[in-house]
Design a protein that fits this description.
The protein has a single domain (about 30-125), classed as Quinohemoprotein amine dehydrogenase alpha subunit, domain 2 (Lipocalin, Beta Barrel). It contains 1 helix and 9 strands; from the N terminus they run αβββββββββ. The protein has one helix at about 1-30, and strands spanning about 35-40, 45-55, 60-65, 70-75, 75-80, 85, 90-100, 100-110, 115-125. Strands 4-3-2-1-9-8-7-6-5 form a 9-stranded antiparallel beta sheet. The radius of gyration is 20 Å and the shape is globular. The protein starts with a helix and ends in an 8-residue tail after the last strand.
């Protein structure tokens, strides 16, 4: 009986560890990837693209206004659960992931005032299917 109790305990512990590992991976995958959408700053709407990568728990990324400027590296990316914050030299984006969407507010970092909103949709990479 003691042996069965010990085996049951060991299996339960292993299952719990696997669940923690899987949920951590899901959180990473929730934010990492290619995103496209728009920024609306006081009625000035522009399309944008965002790429976020996770390397061993450290996030980094690049941002590109699809109309007016080449891609630039994001100064900082912070992820806490479904909350995502990324910062450029002049703008800060605070949003939340919901399914395949990140949406939130834009703040002018120089003045600290709200200056708009953004919405991004995850774009999955194209996977070729060969018959």
């Amino acid at each position: 009986m003691k042996k069965m109790t010990w085996i049951a305990f060991a299996l339960a512990a292993a299952s719990a560890c696997a669940g923690v590992s899987q949920s951590g991976k899901q959180a990473q995958e929730k934010v990492s990837g290619h995103w496209m959408g728009a920024i609306d700053r006081d009625g000035w709407q522009r399309p944008l693209a965002l790429d976020i990568a996770n390397q061993d728990g450290t996030y980094a990324g690049s941002w590109m206004s699809l109309e007016s400027q080449p891609g630039i590296m994001i100064d900082r990316v912070d992820v806490n659960g479904d909350a995502v914050r990324f910062q450029l030299k002049t703008l800060s984006f605070d949003g939340h992931v919901s399914g395949r969407t990140i949406a939130g507010s834009v703040t002018d970092t120089a003045s600290g005032t709200a200056s708009g909103q953004f919405t991004l949709t995850r774009v999955d990479p194209y996977v070729a299917v060969v018959p």
